[in-house]
Design brief:
Oligomer: single chain
Radius of gyration: 23 Å
Number of domains: 2
Structural class: alpha/beta
Largest sheet: 7 strands, mixed
Strand content: 25-35%
CATH superfamily of the largest domain: Vaccinia Virus protein VP39
Number of helices: 9
Shape: elongated
CATH architecture of the largest domain: 3-Layer(aba) Sandwich
Distance between the termini: 66 Å
CATH topology of the largest domain: Rossmann fold
CATH class of the largest domain: Alpha Beta
Length: 292
Amino acid sequence: MNWVQIRINATNQNREQLEDALLEAGALSITLEDAADQPILEPDLDQTPFWDEIILTALFDAHVDGSQVLSALESTLPFPLPTAKLEILEDKDWIKAWEDAYQPIQMTDKLWICPSWKTPPEPNAINLMLDPGLAFGTGTHPTTSLCLKAIADTELDDKTFIDFGCGSGILAIAALLLGAKKGAAVDHDPQAVRSTQTNCEKNGIPSDQLTIGLSTEIELSPCDIMLANILASPLITLANKLTDLTKPRGKMILSGLLDDQKDEVMAAYPSIDFHTIQKEADWICLIGTKLT
């Protein structure tokens, strides 16, 4: 079947009233997306921030008269109806369309990130099978890409690691596939823990090679390589903890920060010699060695 779709240029100030009015008019679903490429980098805990400018998309059954919906909105809203576009959305295989949007990504000469429904383009390469999900980390974001390349350039044989803030588990799995001995993957989000466990199963990671759990529940021992692809604020807050969990002469790979945040982050790690700074777009990866 086809669908009636209405797209409205909304703002954070009027989105709730528009959502309520559209639902009252019979909308089956409403999605919101950024209309001005505005990053939301570090929201406070228990907050769900929104962009200033929003594209609000409402989906209706095909029998609904979209023009009447727009007229109803114009007559009931306490403000002029923003710019709106009415479309007929043809039905299609949405699962296939979603899957087609994700293609294998070559991260390094020897490492590929490949959705599980795709045949790896280089069967003899190291293929990390990873499906998009709720947890952060699919290889498409610059910080993940930077960390993966840093891991691939690191001597991993017989090394231990901690992936602190593991998200999808992509960094931990990559480290193991590339030759690390064993490690731990922790996160404060239970969804990330579940995602990491699922992705480990897809990649055949033995349970005794990677300890997975909530950061508040797993007892961690100092490691050879510390991986933390989180954000600038938690990197600063956790500086002492991450430093203590890194062995002397151990390596630290930190990302999730912007170029203008690197000095503040590095200052929080006085015992780390950050000898390499990698950049992709506006994002930074700091690579250093613990001095003592």
